[in-house]
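User: Hi! Is it possible to get a structure for several chains at once, not just one? Here's what I have:
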Amino acid sequence: MCAADLLPSNFSHIYVEEDALGYPMADEVLKHFPGSIIVRIKHYKDVFNRPGQDSAVQSRSKNLILAVNRGRKIFDASPVCQDFGYGKFYYVQSAMNCVFNCDYCFLKGMYGTSNIVIFVNTDEYIKECEDKLKEGPMYLCASYDTDITALSSICSWQRVWEELALHNRDLTIELRTKSVVNNAVPCNNLIYAFTLSPGLIIKEYEKNTPSLEKRIESVNKAIDSGAKVRLCFDPIIYIRDYEVCYNDFADTIIRNIDIQKVKDISIGTFRISSDYLLNLRKGSPDSPAVLFPFDRENGFCVYPKDLKDRMIGVLKDRFEGAGFGSKLYIF
Amino acid sequence: MIYVFAAINCEIAPLKQLESDDLKIILTGIGKVNAAFALGRTFPGKNTRSEHNNDVIINIGTCGASNLHGLFLVNKITDESTGRDYYPDMLRVKGFPEAHLITVDRVKTDPEPFTLYDMEASAIFMAGSKIISPDRMFFIKVVSDNGNVEGVTEEGVSNMMNEYLPSIKSLIDQILAGLDHSTASPCYDDINQKLHSSASMQVQVCELMDFARSIGIDGSELFEQEGAGLVSSRKEGKEVIARVRSRLTSF
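Assistant: Yes, the chains can be modeled jointly so their relative placement is included. Here is the combined structure:
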C-alpha cells in the first residue's frame, strides 16, 4: 500500500464558518457531500492561513472551506495579466484555490495551502459589482484565484456571473478555465476563456485536468452555441523539443477548431513572481516546469528573452499564418 | 521520528510497548504549561521547519465528555481560556470517529454535549506548529469520565489505555504508512568548491543541478564538461555557471 492509498479522497472534511451556515450557496455545496465531516469554524483564515501547511500533501486530499467574504471582493488585476485592451480591468475573488493540481500554478505559490475556499455571500458580491459599474464599464475576471467552472458541479458561482453579465451590458466577464463548460451562454459581454495546452504538457504538468480532446470538444460546443470564446495558449511551458510539441499542438487546434469563430487568442510563456516560485518548488520538487533556471526581472521569474521569443514565435507564426494575426494577444 | 506526548504515567505505561527507534514516548505532566515545556525540551536547538520534515507529533491521553464514549481523533481544538481554535489536518488517517476537543485549565464539571475536554492539546498544537506542519500532528483521546473525576483511578486509566491499545497501534501504523520521507537538498559542496562560489553562485549551482536532475541529466558531469575542474578564480566559476545555464536552457 502506498501513501496515496491511505489519503482519503477530496473534501473528506468541509470547514464551514458559523456565519456561512444558512446561505443558499452553503446549503447547495453541502448537499453534494453527505458523507463529509463538517467542522464548524469561526473564520476561514483559521484554517486556510495556518502557518507551515504542507500544500503538497494537502493537494492529494483537498478539503473545502465555506466562508463569508466580509472584506473587499473586487480587485485590480495583476500587471502580468493581459487586459485585452480594457482600461478598467479587475478580478473578483468568489473562491480561492483550485481543484486541479497543475505543477506551475501561481495559486500554489500564492497560497500556503491546497485547501479551497468558496465564498457563499453571492448577493454582496453582486452589489459590490453593481456599485463599481456606476463608475463606468468594466472588465471582470471571475475565475482568477480559482477555476470557477471546475467548481460548477458543486456550486453555482459560474451561473451567478453569467446572469450578471446578461443583465449588465457594461460589464464584460471572463470565465477562464481548463475545465469543460456545460451550457455556455451566448452573450456579447461574456467570454469563455479556455486554457489549452499540448497533450504532453497536460499529462506531465496539469494533473487532474480534462484532456486536450475534451477541452477542444467543449470549445466547439461553446462556439456552436453562439458563446464568445477566447483561446488561451498561456502558459507555454518549455520542454525538450518544444518546437515540435507546440507545432503539433497548433496543427491540432487549427484542424479541430474553426478559429475564425473565436473572439481572440492569447499567447504567453510561463512567468511568475519570484516569491511564489520558491513555494512552487517546495511543492513540486521534481517538476522541470518550475525548476527551470529562470531569469529574474523586476521581481518576476521569466524565461530568457530569446527563448521566450522563440517559444511564442512557434504559435504566433502558426496562427498568423492561419489568418488570425489581428486577434492575437501576446504576453 | 514519531514523538508521542502523554500527560500522566498511567496513560504512558501501556504505550511503552510501542516505543522503538522510530517512536519516542514523552511524559509532559498535566496542563498547558507543562505540555509546552515538554515540547521545548524535546526539540531543543535551532528548530527550523526543514529540520523536522520527517517528524510527527501525537498527543495521546484520556479526556472528559458528557455523552461520548471510546477513542476519538480530534479535528478541532479550542483553547477555552483564549477562545482560539486550532485545526490539525485530517489527511493521513481514516476510519476513526472524530470530535471537537476543548482544552481547559481546570477539570470541566459541566461539559457541553458531544465535546471532549482535556488539559494539554491546545498547548501541544501551538508549540508543535512552530516546527511541524498540521498534517503531522495528531490528537488521540480516550474518554475516561464525564467531568466527575472522583471515580477515575490510575489503574482504571491504565486499563482503559490498554483496552484501546490495538486501535492506537492501528492508528499509528496508518500514520507511519502515510508518511513521505523528504530528504534534505544536497548542497553540492564539491562543485561550489571548484567554482570558488559566492553565496549567490551557490544558489545558482543548486538551481541548475536541481533542474538538471529533473530532466534526467547528470548535472555534475555537465559542470565538469564545461570546465569546473579547471577553474582558478570566481570570475571563471561564473563563466562556467553561465555555460551550464546556456546548455541546460537549450537542451
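The longest strand of chain B covers residues 56-64. Strands of chain B lie at 2-6, 23-27, 56-64, 71-79, 85-86, 98-103, 115-118, 137-145.

User: Great, thank you!
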